[in-house]
Each structure stands twice: as C-alpha cells, then as structure tokens.
Design goal:
alpha/beta; Rossmann fold; 9-stranded mixed β-sheet; 9 helices; 9 strands; globular
Length: 287
C-alpha cells in the first residue's frame, strides 16, 4: 500500500511532462536519427512496407540492439490506426537508443499492409524471416540482441506470429507485450474460438520460449495473464508489469492519446517506463 501511494505521488509530478517525441516518418535511404518507409524487393509494386528507424548515434560498422514491433488493430476509439507508421511502443521502450523495426501484417491478397487482425499469417512470417536478418549486415543489428514487442493485436502477435514455428521463434532474444496476450481470452470467430482449442494452440506456441526473457505489461493489472500462464510455462524469466495508465496521462482524451488502451505510455516518464527500460537494457546487454 505504501509503495502504491509513493507511486501515485511520483506520477503526479510527471503526467504533464513533455512526451518523448516520435521521429518523423520520411522517405529515402535509412540514416542516423531518421525513420523511413521501406518496401523490400519482393514487394515492389505493392503497398506492403515496413518502417525502419536508426538511432541518432548510429554509425556504420557498429553493433546495435534491435527492437521489432507489431502494431495494434485499427481502432479509432483507442487512437490506433493499425498502420506501421503510427507505432510508438518500440521507440518508447528504448528511448530511441536501438534500431527500431515496425513490421507489417500482410493482407490476404499480398498487396498491402493489413490493419485489422492477421491477413495472410504465413506471408507475414515469411516477411519477418527475410527482413529481420537483412538488418544484420546492412545496419549492424546484433542477432543476439533482438527484442520482439507488440501492442494489442501486436501483443498477441508476439506469440501468435513470433513463436508460430521453430524458424521464426529463433530470431528473438526476448519479448515484450502490452495489453493482451496470446491465449488469454476468446476472440470472435474464425480466430481464437473456441477458447479451449485456442488455449491449447497458444500453449504449444509458448513452449518455444525456451527460457528467454519476457516482459508482460498490462493497463491496471497483469493478473489475468499471470493466471493463464501459471502451470503452462516456467515463470522464472517472466516479468509482469502493471501499468497505471490513468496516473501516467492527463484525463482522457488528451493530446497524446484518446484512450487508456494505448501504446504511448512509454513516451511519458514514469516508474513503469523506468522498469521497462531497465528490463530492455538487461535483456540486450552484451555477454
């Protein structure tokens, strides 16, 4: 109780702080301090693309941690566009001090990014398998320091996509989810229902974690996810972080986000952000 009171006192002084400014989206070749849209050669002539940010201290020939992100669904009420250009979680978690790659979900026809649910799951997985390793040689992303993160749909996608099979699961060094988690609740048909079948499939995906670190964040409480995971996977490398969104932000709607279901909480200073960033630093420290 005392810790909770201290937390509220601390956050009272930061809710009106200037938010971390997201890098402007641009076109052209990636360079230090810029975030650009990239259409890989396999998708030339389509609208499929990802976003790539190189930290302001980026230099050719040096090695950098990489954070890879899947976005939330298109949801006007929560301010989520589902577009890769509007992601924020990965940048906020790292303070812009890592390479930041925002991956698309590929539409079923393969011609554009899908902003609602999964589109073509296999095409999305194949896209990640091709484009994440390209960053190793091109921009110095360290294959031993790659964190996969996601918000809402993307939080589910961390496991549903990122642990979908043995090939893609090998890419990651650790995982961060915010608001939702694969297998916790039943979704509308034809996906995530019936719950018993969905949870069995999600449990099989989680078996591919193989002890790698996981940070699970949730607005207000991670209790539901904690209960789901108990008995399904070992929890010694899982960190649960309750995010008191209403104490981090001014009243909703506000200029940063219209809704507490948001990926923008790490843009404002808070003890929760400090904890998340410390987790990232530990998960990506060089051995």
């Amino acid at each position: 109780m005392l810790l909770r009171i201290l937390y509220l006192l601390l956050t009272t002084f930061v809710i009106h702080a200037e938010p971390l400014k997201l890098p402007a989206n641009s076109i052209g070749y990636p360079a230090a301090g810029t975030r650009v849209a990239v259409t890989p050669c396999e998708y030339q002539g389509t609208k499929v693309h990802h976003m790539l940010y190189l930290p302001s201290n980026w230099e050719a020939g040096k090695s950098y941690p990489l954070i890879v992100e899947f976005t939330g669904n298109y949801s006007p009420a929560s301010g989520s566009t589902g577009e890769v250009k509007d992601a924020a979680l990965g940048f906020g978690l790292t303070g812009g001090k890592a390479i930041w790659l925002t991956l698309p979900n590929i539409s079923k026809d393969g011609l554009k990014n899908e902003v609602t649910w999964w589109g073509n799951t296999q095409a999305t997985i194949d896209y990640a398998l091709k484009n994440v390793p390209r960053l190793y040689q091109q921009f110095g992303a360290d294959p031993k320091r790659i964190i996969l993160c996601g918000f809402s749909r993307g939080a589910i996608g961390v496991s549903y996509l990122g642990l979908h099979n043995d090939n893609i699961s090998k890419l990651w060094s650790g995982f961060v989810t915010h608001d939702h988690f694969d297998g916790v609740k039943q979704w509308r048909k034809p996906w995530g229902s019936p719950l018993t079948k969905y949870q069995k499939e999600a449990t099989a995906r989680l078996s591919r974690l193989n002890g790698r670190p996981v940070l699970i964040c949730q607005n207000n409480s991670t209790k539901e996810t904690r209960n789901f995971l108990a008995g399904r996977i070992p929890l010694q490398n899982v960190t649960f972080l309750d995010i008191p969104i209403s104490t981090i932000f001014p009243p909703f709607p506000n200029p940063i986000t219209p809704h507490p279901h948001t990926d923008r909480w790490p843009l404002l200073p808070s003890p929760a952000r400090d904890t998340a960033r410390q987790w990232f630093q530990k998960a990506t420290q060089t051995k």
